[in-house]
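Good morning C.,

I know you're traveling, so I'll keep this short. The sequence:
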Amino acid sequence: MTEQILTGGCLCGQVRYEARGAPRFSGFCFCVDCRKASGSGFIPFIGFAPGQVTITGEVLLHSHRLKNGRSAERNSCAVCGGLVFGGERGNAESHTIYAGSLDDPSLFKPTIAINVADRAPWALLPEGLTVFAGMPG
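The tokens, ready to paste straight into the viewer:
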């Protein structure tokens, strides 16, 4: 069996990543923070252990304190501003690759929807996902 490798990056190609192996989780986050960060109704994400992801290029790290006390770290390309991944490089329990940055978007296989209680009424919820009102416990 061949190891799965996902590749992607920002709009201009300055930031690139390679994620190897099976993801821990994948889905859609409908929280207010993700809506504002993406400018959309949700962020499609794929979660990996830090050791599974190699990232190159200069990023702008934005850290935002959430209502529940956790911190959300988002990384954008320092050149084009494209939102690429979550988690602080070298200091994260996991990295969240944003599925919109994949080179091959057909490799995104969502299984969950989180923070659905915060979903904007116009944001569509795909069928067949395991749905969580908040964060999975």
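Safe travels,
E.
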